[in-house]
Amino acid sequence: MAGPGFKRWLSNLLRQAGLLYLTDYMMFWLQKVRNYKKNQSFKKANPGIVLPPDYLVYESFQLDYRKYYTDSIETARWLTGIFKTHAHLYNANILDWGCGPGRIIRHLPDLAGAPCFIYGTDCNPRTIAWCRHNIPGVQFSQNSMDPPLDFNDQFFHIIYGISIFTHLSEPMHRAWAAELHRLLAPEGICLLTTQGEAFLQKLTGKEQQSFREGRLVVRGKVKEGHRIWSAFQPESYIMELFAGFSLVSLRKGEASGRPQQDVWVFRKA
To answer: I need a labelling partner for 135 at 20 to 30 A (CA). Which of 52, 72, 141, 180 fits?
Structure first.
């Protein structure tokens, strides 16, 4: 089995050669074929569960219907638990920034436990079209890669973005951090996940040095926002980026096995 060093080398080679899209699309078809039987079994056993087209499932998670659906419920429960700890949900405006095909947000109306208003926004027109047609109880809108979003200042009481900054460039980090600050109401909370120290093993020696010096590490040469665009955020970088917020909590990701992202909760003073 290839070690992490070889995987880093191969990934960088494919990225520099402009072959990462092709490789990723091949991985999509590999998962589609490998998981075909169990995915069809899941659909047969759960005819009432509507799922997005296969590539949208793959792009936002992995092409395993059962994991896609059941893991999303657990994530939504985890999120609502954090929200209830740090904010009031009654009549709250909640935003899923970068909602994708609604993997998590589809469960929030049932799990919130209080009357609230839930919004989802994403830059992919296909995902927003699917969400609007298939997910009730949520208001969806399409945005561009650049802010602003079409909402008034201080409109939201809760904003969350799961692995969104991980697919953005340096300028977009700063632009969207400012936009989230504009959108969030005073005392509102913002939950975000980033690729922190747990992902050092995935970086080259030069990238690790840059990361340890507090600089954002970006792997581009693909369409920004796509799943194979990848950004890695040191703790000091995020603290500087969100200097206009107060830190409520930080759960640092674990590096063992599949690295986990850091989970940040900020409050707008």
So the answer is: 180
Q: Which residues pair with 266 in a beta bridge?
A: 190, 247
pLDDT tens column, 175-209: 999 999 999 999 999 999 999 999 999 999 999 99
Domain boundaries, the chain: 74-268
Coil, strand, or helix at residue 218? Answer: strand
Helices (H) and strands (E) in the chain — how many of each? 10, 9
Amino acid at 104: I
Instruction: Tell whether pTM > 0.85.
Output: yes
SS3 of the chain: helix, strand, coil, percent, to 5: 45, 20, 35
CATH level 3 topology of 74-268: Rossmann fold (3.40.50)
Total residue length of the chain:
269
- Cα first-last separation, the chain: 50
Phi and psi (nearest 5°) for 36? -55, -50
